[in-house]
Amino acid sequence: MSGRPINLCPEEILTGAAARDAVARGRALPLAGGPLAFAAVEVLERMADGSAESRYLAIAELKDWAARRGRAAEIERTLETIAAARAPWAGFALDRPIVMGILNVTPDSFSDGGAYVDPARALAHGRAMIEAGADIVDIGGESTRPGADATPLDEELRRVIPIVAALARDGVTISVDTRRMPVMKAALDAGARIINDVTALTGDADSLALAVASGAPLVLMHMAGKPRTMQEAPRYDDVAMDVLAYLEARIAACEAAGIAKSRIAVDPGIGFGKHPIEHNLPLLRRVALLHTTGCAVLLGLSRKQFIGRVSRNEPAGERIAGSVAGALWGLSQGVQILRVHDVAETRQALAVRRAILMSVA
Ligand code: 8Y7
């Protein structure tokens, strides 16, 4: 049934026994098959001018509302997708938060630029993040900070591949942060397991075919425009609906090429072609909208600029508490994977959250 695009963002998210009880009584549905449940949704309906009209409906009200509009079957399918258990991703069951630690082997990254260009220091930092509780180490050799110039391919390979190979020899699960097919291929050959592409396989004409052939799990991130120019004039009709539509199109392109959805994690791309306040904040508020893809959701907000903007304009190194707060927000919305610089601090916060949630059976 066609009509105006309608998206559902899970709301009234419950935890623990309250979640189980509400699901058992049919008042709520599991959120992505996890321990949280949602008892209501924000219905986002795309208007003719592109903007989103919003209404909040309890699950029971939603069914009547959809039936009156002749959209009952479609809304039912969407709810089923949001509620369904997620397949394991990259060998992780997704029954607890997955922490991806960031290892930038670049001279010019915004938060740790230059700290880990030296291979010995990069290796030590990768190992320290594993010690601190990282599940994955994300290795990148090209800065995607706003305005950054492209790194020559041979330079990106020279920075990334030796570190991938050394950490892979330790048995570390590695994702490679790159938009270039030759870097993906060399990294997978050197022992990386996961492709993390901020261009969602649009940045290199050969990357989709490589992703298909490799069988590797993927992170597809939303970015508006290219890093060089993305922050110049980002604009959206409705940022959350637009990001979801882009990611759905990229998932469809991957599926058409032969990639199973279970291999894909989606990511809203905080800070990539987004105004720090006007776009990042409503996108984070509605991050649960991404569960309608049926894929695992990865969130990367560690040390990003918006944290300083909503606080006291702290520099990147002083945004750790805000980063942890944002990570906890993501978990409260059912996000399964967190990409962070500060693994120990994030792990501590997760342990406290988990202990509180588990204290009442
Ligand atoms: C992200 C990312 C960066 C992110 C994913 C930074 C490479 C800027 N941010 N990859 N990469 N998600 N998947 O702040 O948010 O680390 S680079």
What does this structure look like?
- The chain is an alpha/beta fold and 361 residues long.
- The chain folds into two domains: 6-83, no CATH class; 98-358, TIM Barrel.
- The chain has twelve helices and twelve strands.
- The strands form two sheets. The chain has an eight-stranded parallel barrel with strand order 5-6-7-8-9-10-11-12, surrounded by six helices. Strands 1, 2, 3 and 4 form a four-stranded antiparallel β-sheet that branches.
- Helix 4 crosses helix 5, helix 5 runs parallel beside helix 6 (181-189) and helix 11 packs across helix 12.
- The longest helix is centred in the C-terminal third of the chain and has 19 residues, at 239-257.
- The protein starts with 5 loop residues before the first strand and ends with a helix.
- Bound molecules: ligand 8Y7.
- Ligand 8Y7 is lined by residues 102, 140, 144, 177, 196, 198, 219, 221, 267, 269-270, 298, 300, 304, 339.
Radius of gyration: 20 Å
Helix content: 25-40%
Query: H/E series, N to C?
Result: EHEEEHHEHEHEHEHEHEHEHHEH
* Whole-number count of domains: 2
Ligands and ions found: ligand 8Y7
Q: For the terminal residues, how far apart are their CA atoms? A: 43 Å
Q: What is the mean predicted local confidence, pLDDT?
A: 95
Report strand %: 15-25%
CATH architecture heading of the largest domain: Alpha-Beta Barrel
Structural class of the helix and strand makeup? Answer: alpha/beta
Low-confidence spans: none
Biggest sheet strand line-up: 5-6-7-8-9-10-11-12
Large-scale geometry: globular
